[in-house]
Amino acid sequence: MDSQTSQPFIQIRDLRKTYVMGRNKVHALDGVDLDIEFGSLTVVMGPSGSGKSTLLYLLGGLDRLTSGRIHVDGQALEQMDENALAVYRRRVVGFIFQSFNLMPTLTALDNVAFPMRFSGIAPKARRKKAFELLKQVGLEKRALHKPTELSGGQQQRVAVARALVNDPKLILADEPTGNLDTASGFAIMQLLSDLHRAGRTVLVVTHDPRMLQFATNVIYLLDGKTVSQAEYEAASTFSQPQEITEGNS
Amino acid sequence: MRLIDLLSLIADNLGRRKGRVALTAIGVVIGTAAVVLLVSLAIGLQQNATSQLWGIDDLTRIDVSPGYSEGPVISGRGGVVAVSELGGGMQVKNLTPAAIDEIASLPGVEHVIPRDYLWGGGTMRYGRLENYPSIMGVGTNDLSVFGYQLREGSLQLERGTAVIGHWIAQNWYDPKARPGDGQPEQPDLVGKTVTVTLMKWAEDGTMIEKKVQVRVVGILAEQRSEADGWMFMRLDDVTAYNEWFQGKRINRNKDGYPMLVVKASDPDKVIEVAEQINNMGFMASTPQSVVEGINSFFTVLQITFGGVGAIALLVAAIGIANTMTMAILERTREIGLMKAIGATNRDVLTIFLGESAGIGFIGGLGGIAIGWVGGELLNILARTYLSSQPSYGMGGQLTASTPTWLLLFALVFATLVGLISGLYPSVRAATLVPVTALKYE
């Protein structure tokens, strides 16, 4: 378990991310403060443009913050150079994307093994570990299939296995069920829940409220700020009649 | 990232786009083949030229002529050399016996042999056959000093004897022959005596003849040098003939010899000895300096030819840069993914640089194969053509010569061209912001 018990696993303070689009400045994150405990399954809820994906990418070291502080597992991301961030991504984080991002020319097994090439692990050991992980996500029989020969749900399970190859403490999932049907989406959430139960910290970004049943911790984001559940629901109710009207028309 | 992983990843990535890689590599193939073929051609021409150089059979030889200069000549040791004043302020430093001694005392000098030409015309007669040799007097009794190969007889000269060159021995003609009779049978002269008739004109315009009997003691094998056209006699014989031509004695201490042949003990010392002789005020020329001059000309030719091929490679380089730029646009999301799963900027840079160097390497391999085969084809064509040309004398010579270093150089160069062309796109790929790359549509 986390050795840094005195301090939360993830600590975010006054986090701001501003994009410059032409002459306009867009504040994707506008002063976010968060503490996330080790071993939790956090669901970040928010509509499109709320800044939830930006939060995930900043946590994953894929983007640079404008100001503020992000500490993950005792490491200050804002102080890291490109190389240190790459090592952080390799050792601490596992990513799962909405569009799977599998290499179309590689088999499921090779896709899972791919990140280990950058860690200097020998080919035999890579394949062994990749196969074990595919087995863990129930795809050992599809190991030699290419992504185009797999269903969406299976592809996302390959992506989950790939996220686990470097044994990361933190799993970051960006709309992992967004491209999946209900059953497949549920299976993926089940898988993420299993990972959380196995001791990993999981952070899922979604706007799908069905995910909440798996969460140990929920963060609501609106316009780049964290809000309470009540505020979030109020904002959602405000926008709901319009959507229903559109849906019925 | 381990080297083996890097190489296999590069090979996988190139294998994914076989068609495009092949098309891009074709440019490199053409450029490399052009470099290999053109430089091979230049090397072949150089080898042809140097192998056919006349008189380059002896690399220890230095030909020394009198030194000509303007103004007073600085004499060697205590004014032992004679200096003559020519018209227009020109001075000549003569090759006197004292100068010979001075040159002979230089370290690395084995022999110093004075030579003199026959200053007038001479006709050689044997039976009814005639010949017009160029007669050369040499200050040695042993022609083997020059390294000449003998066809028949001996290289030892005595008074009243001669050794004749290959051409002279084959140039006898019958003055009474009628047109169409063809060349008469050439006599076997070794041990035979020929009559040499020297001719000069008296002041009143009458022709005076002097007949001398000369015994031929040896005939040289073909030297492919000036020796083929000479009739060699002892210097004192020729000096006597020249004194007869001039009607007065020749004072070598004053007039010197027109030329010396200096033999160095070692080919490596030739340049050094020649420099020392030049510093003494004489003019020394060596076959090596001739070869060096020719070599430097052909080096320029090789560079020029190589440059033409390099232009083709430059075009190919732009092709590689274009292909890599396109590949990076297409694979932006892949780059984002690689970074997301822990690839450093350096990993990405190395992968893409490796891919572009790989294209250069593949093209280079194809290019050196085609360039080499092209050179061989050229040789076959040249041999076929030249062998159909009667007695041109170049049959069997190579037209293009492809040394191993050229093939290796071309391969390394093509790979480097690939590497450098990939520099800009690879740096762009490496410095992409991961999140931007991942979101790229």
Map the helices and strands.
The complex is a heterodimer of chains A (249) and B (441).
Chain A: E1 10-21, E2 24-36, E3 41-45, H1 52-59, E4 67-72, E5 75-76, H2 82-91, E6 93-96, H3 108-113, H4 123-136, H5 152-164, E7 170-174, H6 182-197, E8 201-206, E9 217-222, E10 225-227, H7 229-248
Parallel strand pairs in A: 3-8, 3-9, 6-7, 7-8
Antiparallel strand pairs in A: 1-2, 1-4, 4-5, 9-10
Helix pairs in contact in A: 4-5, 5-6
Chain B: H1 3-16, H2 18-51, E1 61-65, E2 67-70, E3 83-85, E4 90-93, H3 97-104, E5 109-117, E6 121-126, E7 129-131, E8 134-138, E9 150-153, E10 161-164, H4 166-169, E11 193-201, E12 207-220, E13 230-234, H5 235-246, H6 252-255, E14 259-264, H7 270-279, E15 283-285, H8 287-330, H9 332-340, H10 345-387, H11 404-421, H12 423-430, H13 434-439
Parallel strand pairs in B: 8-13, 10-12
Antiparallel strand pairs in B: 1-14, 1-15, 2-4, 3-4, 5-8, 5-14, 6-7, 6-11, 9-12, 10-13, 11-12
Query: Would you report the number of β strands of chain B?
Result: 15
Helix residue percentage of chain B: 40-55%
Topology order of chain A in helix (H) and strand (E) letters: EEEHEEHEHHHEHEEEH
Using a beta-carbon cutoff below 8 angstroms, give the protein chain pair with the largest interface and the number of residues from each chain: A-B, 26 and 24 residues
Number of domains of chain A: 1
Count of runs of 4 or more consecutive helical residues of chain B: 13
Query: Percent range for helical residues of chain A?
Result: 25-40%
What is the name of the CATH superfamily of chain A? P-loop containing nucleotide triphosphate hydrolases
Strand content of chain A: 15-25%
Strand content of chain B: 15-25%
Distance between the termini of chain A: 53 Å
Q: Rounded to an integer, what's the Rg of chain A over CA atoms?
A: 19 Å
